[in-house]
Amino acid sequence: MRVIDLANIKVLVAGAKGKMGQEVVRLVENSQDLELVGSIDHILVTDAENKEFSNLADAIKMTAADVLVDFTTPTSVKANMELALRSGISPVVGTTGLSSTDLDELDELAKASGIGGLVAPNFAIGAVLMMRFAEQASKYLPNVEIIELHHDQKLDAPSGTAIKTAELIANQRQAKEQGAKGESETLVGARGANYAGFRIHSIRLPGLVAHQEVIFGAVGQTLTIRHDSINRESFMPGVYLAITKVKEFKGIIYGLERIMD
Questions:
Q1: For the structural domain made of 9-119+233-259, what CATH number should be given?
Q2: Catalytic one of 17, 151, 154, 250
Q3: What is the CA 32 to chain-centroid distance, rounded?
Q4: Where are the domains of the chain?
Q5: What whole-number distance in Å separates Cα of residue 69 and Cα of residue 91?
Q6: Is 150 a residue of the active site?
Q7: Alpha helices, DSSP H only, in 148-257?
Q8: H helices of 38-124, where?
Q9: Which of 10, 150, 245, 247 is flagged as catalytic?
């Protein structure tokens, strides 16, 4: 297992030319205790001298990285994590689309490798608090629906944040199937996805970044808990926290809130 120099954590960024990847590159380059040792993206031509790589395998061979930050796609994230873990590199992942089975398998691999990794549906501190508040509210207001809104280039729906929120709510909420008895959809999908008896709705439009509201209803009242990421800088404090904390544990941690307490 590689010993990480906390004064100089060496970072690879996968998906470096994407919108989130570019923000991560700026974060690392502007942090005194982080060093960018490689930008990875399929549109790049491998050039080790300029720290640019077309694939993760080349980057690992030509650098001595401590942490991989991955903001790629659901189709590549698991393979990237497996390669990183087998190479002694701790992954910090914001790419969504990993199943619970995927996470279990990656957790076993991380523990076998003696290192930690973190997968977070959302790196915005405010979004983590929104999820926590929704979890607390669901104990008292079990009638709830989730609306998540993202830019129209997002590939998966519902978002990882919505799924994580739903999991937290389901763990606290009294089990019940919402909606009128005999309810039907005149257009398939109009009521959204059913998760443990309540609904999740996904909106995809240009001009959006990442937004979510959780709406609770009760007799004579409603409660709405909403978080908005206005720009992608909002995720960077959470990414920085994950990069600097990931060496402190073994196995895969799911959710930024697990390292915030």
A1: 3.40.50.720
A2: 154
A3: 25
A4: 9-119+233-259, 125-230
A5: 6
A6: yes
A7: 160-172, 236-245
A8: 56-62, 77-86, 100-113
A9: 150
Run of H or E residues at 137: helix 125-137
The CA distance from 210 to 124, in Å, is 10
| Inter-residue contact 112 to 155 (CB < 8 Å) | no
The pair of structure tokens assigned to 90 is 């701790």
Instruction: Show pLDDT as tens, one digit a residue, over the chain (261 residues).
Output: 455 556 789 999 999 999 999 999 999 999 999 999 999 999 999 999 999 999 999 999 999 999 999 999 989 999 999 999 999 999 999 988 889 999 999 999 999 999 999 999 899 999 999 999 999 999 999 999 999 999 999 988 999 999 999 999 999 998 899 989 889 999 999 999 999 999 999 999 999 999 999 999 999 999 999 999 999 999 999 999 999 999 999 999 999 989 986
Which residue is associated with the tokens 């280039």? 153
Q: What CATH number was assigned to the domain covering residues 125-230?
A: 3.30.360.10
- Annotation says 19 is catalytic: no
